[in-house]
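User: Reviewer 2 asked us to show a designed sequence for the structure in our supplementary figure. I'm pasting the structure tokens here. Could you produce the per-position amino acids so we can include them in the response letter?
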């Protein structure tokens, strides 16, 4: 049992092309709206993460300063012949290594934030290429 397909030959090609163009415009508009909402969502997440992160960094810097001074004094206490500059250098080197590792980790986390937007841009580019190939 096949459905009856009736075609109206009086319509012509113009309404069909017009419908395709309107659909393409609607699709591109929807893609742009999706892209905008993803960008806003990513910015909201970044802002929500940045505020406590900055507060934690400020407190952590202050705590790190005092703990570093304490460790320097502890090294000098344990090894009385150790010069103060050497103790400061040891503590500074250890803290620099830890800080570098944390920065590298933070950069990898920030790179993940833009992945959603890249997917939306790719989909939008594909739609624009599809509509311009006519």
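Assistant: Here is a per-position design you can include in the supplement:
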């Amino acid at each position: 049992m096949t459905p009856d397909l009736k075609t109206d030959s009086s319509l012509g090609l113009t309404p069909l092309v017009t419908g395709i163009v309107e659909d393409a415009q609607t699709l591109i508009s929807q893609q742009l709206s999706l892209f905008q909402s993803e960008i806003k969502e990513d910015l909201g997440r970044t802002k929500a993460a940045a505020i406590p992160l900055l507060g934690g960094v400020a407190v952590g810097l202050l705590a790190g300063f005092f703990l570093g001074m304490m460790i320097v004094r502890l090294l000098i206490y344990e090894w009385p012949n150790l010069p103060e500059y050497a103790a400061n250098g040891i503590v500074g080197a250890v803290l620099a290594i830890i800080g570098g590792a944390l920065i590298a980790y933070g950069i990898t986390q920030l790179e993940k934030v833009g992945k959603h937007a890249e997917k939306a841009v790719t989909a939008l580019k594909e739609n624009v290429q599809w509509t311009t190939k006519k």
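For the response letter, you might also mention the following. Residues 31 and 124 are 6 Å apart (CA to CA). Residues 18-132 form one domain.
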